[in-house]
Amino acid sequence: MTQQSTQNDLYDVVVIGGGPAGLTAGLYLARARYRVLVLEKDDFGGQITITNEVVNYPGVGRTTGRALTATMREQAKDFGAEFLSAEATGLDVDGDVKTVHTTRGDLKTFGILIATGASPRKLGFEGEAEYAGRGVAYCATCDGEFFTGKEVLVVGGGFAAAEESVFLTKYASKVTVLVREDDFTCDASVAAEAKRNPKIDVRYGVELKGVTAGQGGLREATILTRATGAIETWKPADGGTFGVFVFAGYVPATSLVKGVVELDDHGYVVTHGYLETSVPGVYAAGDLRVKNLRQVVTATADGAIAAVELERYAKSMSEKTGLVPPRPTASAYEQEEAAAATSAASGAGAAGTSPAPAPVKRSADAAAAKAASQRKPGERFSAAVKQQLGVVFGRMTRPVTLALELDDTPLSAELQGFVGEMVALSGGRLNSVAVDAAGLVTAIDGSSAPAGLVVGEPLEIVAAAGGAGDGDAALPTYGTLDDTGRAEFDPAGLMPVARPCVRLCVADDGTDGGRLVFTGLAFHGVPSGHEFNSFVLGLYNAAGPGQPLDADLRERAEAISTPTDVMILVSLTCTMCPETVLASQRIASLNPNVRAEAYDVSHFPELRDQYGAMSVPCIVINRGGAAGDGGEQKVEFGKKNIAQMLDLLGA
């Protein structure tokens, strides 16, 4: 390998973790013209993305965690930082050039910043594991709405417990906070808001020892008074069900670096004066390191400090090895600066004077302003989203037909409008066909629509060849409506036909185009909010070639021989659902034996009740048919990647 090729594949710094610490480091390094890549296995933004309200970040009045970190990412991207969605699986840290092994290949780099953060701590009280997802939750933003009108217990006495207890009052009839200590351990101003809220009751010096459930959810809690040892049985005032939200701190996500860098007895990374670890060239920032305050502001400070030190380290390694990674030279920031300079020079020449300097405006702000000015009434997608869609559509290898199974509700009209705009933007890669409750085609849209589709005629959708039904089993595209025009369905059925629904289909090449082949991917509701990206990637996976996948995972997915139905109950506000939907649908796109359909549970509460789901994502897996017909059913909760989903499927 030549030195030139080595340099082209080399980074100055690889940042592992896309939370506030990692994004800040990416911003600082890219702005200093170093080549930096930010690696994230889940959702860029980190744990703060599930926080509904951020009011204590300096210079920002009031925002959400997702909005704040989205701005951080945009800033880093504007300066030239690179991003990769993949999981780091191992590190080789010996020598001048280090290697980060990932699920998308190996990355060569001089320096490494570990910024993997921490995950919610489990307490181990009786019933915690058993009822996780059925009454015990860890994310107020994701699961708060499930407890509308009910009482909830909040366990914890830190920032998260105080802030999220206030957030939960939007849904719960009453919030009881159980604090182990004599007072909250967070800043007094944060605790004060919880203390003075009339819907919140704070109990100090107590512990939750266990919960028990009955019909419909949790029914009783056992609470210990620490000072006296007294045990009491707690029930909500109305005698109904309740929820438990655990905010008891975090466990550092340091399994990747265990045995690589020094950790303390609790698993946190030990850092020194400028955040260097015990290994030269490896730094740590954010919630995974030993520190006395874990907040967004300290994470961003860590990211900046570590980035400046890594600049020096990367520079010294370039001088030592003679290798110089290709640095960002045409970032959005530089292009805007150059354009501003050209404009200023032009203005000075015309007037014969030097104009006063214009105020500096970030390119992210400029892009947002431009998008807003160009947006037309009724448009659902910004210019930036359209650009991203264009990239996906351009890579699709065959058209996809979106079969819309509609009823007479406003939600169906919303879905039809949503899909219509996507079809218009797709450049012929998408088309759609709408079918009413009688199973008749009511509308056809798109230049690539199969010629055999006819308005007023029945629509036939069949299973993919090689899977269940071997291409001959027709899916039901008909149903009945109630008096309000809402489609009726059996919540206990195998993959309920809940409308509205959008099914991802392709043309049946073996016929005249009059019927469609179901790819196994569908969404019931409108795939907007956090589900938009997973829906778009589902289109790409259904059309081919699809997202890259390690050979071993692909082999496991393709080897599933038992007909398997995966139903995922989601919420559009949940940040943990999209990866689960994407993972299951990626598997379905590879194997006709697997169907993976997502249901927006806010529109189909019958499914929530059917499975006792008080948390999302809720994953219902049926293997070999319905449970009552000899099949096997499994219900699971929580975010799953492809490997974890394959484990659930027994692959």
**Number of contiguous helices:** 16
Termini distance?
38 Å
The proportion of strand residues reads: 15-25%
**Unreliable spans:** 345-375
The biggest beta sheet is recorded as:
11 strands, mixed
- How would the global form be characterised? globular
Structural class: alpha/beta
Secondary structure: helix percent = 25-40%
Q: What is the β-strand count?
A: 30
Average pLDDT, rounded to a whole number, is: 87
What is Rg? Answer: 27 Å
Question: Care to describe what's here?
Answer:
The chain has 651 residues and is α/β, with parallel strands linked by helices. It is 29% helix and 24% strand. The protein contains 16 helices and 30 strands. Strand 12 (206-214) and strand 13 form a beta hairpin. The chain is globular and about 75 Å long. The two termini are 38 Å apart.
Short characterization:
This protein has 651 residues and is an alpha/beta fold. Helices cover 29% and strands 24% of the residues.
Task: Note the topology.
Layout: H1 3-8, E1 10-16, H2 20-31, E2 36-40, H3 65-78, E3 82-85, E4 88-92, E5 98-102, E6 105-114, E7 118-120, E8 136-137, H4 140-143, E9 151-155, H5 159-168, E10 174-179, H6 188-196, E11 200-204, E12 206-214, E13 217-225, E14 231-234, E15 242-246, E16 250-252, E17 282-284, H7 296-321, H8 332-351, H9 363-374, H10 383-395, E18 400-405, H11 410-425, E19 430-435, E20 441-445, E21 460-462, E22 474-475, E23 480-481, E24 487-488, E25 501-507, E26 515-524, H12 532-543, H13 551-558, E27 564-570, H14 577-590, E28 594-600, H15 605-611, E29 618-623, E30 632-637, H16 642-648
Parallel strand pairs: 1-2, 1-6, 2-3, 6-17, 8-15, 9-10, 9-15, 10-11, 18-19, 21-26, 26-28, 27-28
Antiparallel strand pairs: 4-5, 5-6, 7-16, 12-13, 13-14, 18-25, 19-20, 21-22, 23-24, 25-26, 27-29, 29-30
Helix pairs in contact: 2-3, 2-7, 5-6, 12-14, 14-16
